[in-house]
Design brief:
Blueprint lengths: L40 H15 L6 H8 L3 H5 L5 H12 L12 H18 L4 H5 L1 H4 L5 H13 L4 H22 L10 H11 L7 H5 L1 H4 L17 H27 L1
């Protein structure tokens, strides 16, 4: 009698996924992204800020950020479109508290508070100063809370219409300008040939050609804009900043009085 042969289940070899077609790399499908847990824009921007603080803006890149987060670069691109988006997202995280819990009081006090908080925050994250200086790029992450405080304070100071626009520009330029200029960096370190040449030029001012500069050379040297060879993190310009705030507020008060007198006449 013929015995039936046992039936065997054929062994199949898993097929490798088809190779990706060459061409432009676009945003990956969400299903294709690796598991990233709580990865989101907030976590990404926080990590970007920490990396910029540690390495500087020039060294910051998406690949390094992906390594820091333990994900593939494609996972980051799912949430942000470019390196610039990451930089300005990090900037928005850094400046988020500037306009929070604004103290009650006069419009002068509120403007002073904004100016001082902004500078203090930027000194905590000095590598972001070049991003602040790029005003148009920075506008992609408009801080509406900060702008609301500025506009409301200036309304209280009787600014309106074009005068309000002008006053807003004055305050924002004062807020960003001093801090970014103070935190600007030299082409090389302070002990470089550049720094030595700058110092020699300042200390070698000719009294015959520049008598006023020569008279005040010792006070101005390395403490006045255009005459420094050390950056503001190592050599802060605290008294100059307070003078800047006083002049700004005094100027706004003077313009406010003129506007009020014109309306009442």
């Amino acid at each position: 009698m013929l015995m039936s042969q046992p039936r065997h289940t054929p062994i199949t070899t898993p097929q490798a996924p088809p190779a990706a077609r060459p061409g432009k790399v676009g945003r990956p499908r969400k299903s294709a992204l690796p598991e990233t847990g709580a990865l989101g824009r907030e976590r990404i921007f926080q990590a970007a800020l920490a990396l910029i603080d540690a390495q500087g803006l020039a060294a910051f890149g998406i690949r390094g950020l992906a390594t820091q987060l333990g994900v593939a670069p494609a996972a980051i691109y799912w949430h942000v479109a470019s390196r610039e988006d990451l930089v300005y997202g990090a900037l928005s995280i850094a400046l988020a508290d500037v306009a929070q819990a604004m103290p009650p009081g006069s419009w002068q006090l509120r403007i002073q508070t904004v100016l001082r908080r902004f500078r203090a925050t930027l000194r905590q994250h000095p590598h972001l100063a070049p991003a602040v200086a790029n005003e148009l790029g920075c506008n992609a992450t408009l801080d509406t809370a900060l702008m609301e405080h500025i506009v409301a304070a200036l309304e209280e100071a009787h600014f309106d219409g074009q005068a309000l626009v002008d006053a807003v520009n004055v305050v924002v330029a004062a807020m960003c300008g001093f801090a970014t200029l103070e935190l600007s960096t030299a082409p090389a370190g302070p002990d470089s040939a550049w720094g030595q040449a700058c110092r020699a030029q300042v200390e070698g001012i000719d009294p015959a050609r520049c008598p006023a500069l020569a008279r005040h050379q010792s006070e101005l040297a390395n403490h006045a804009f255009l005459m420094r060879w050390t950056g503001g993190m190592d050599n802060p310009l605290d008294t100059g900043f307070e003078a800047w705030v006083d002049v700004l507020i005094g100027g706004l008060e003077a313009r406010s009085r003129v506007l009020l007198e014109a309306r009442e006449s």
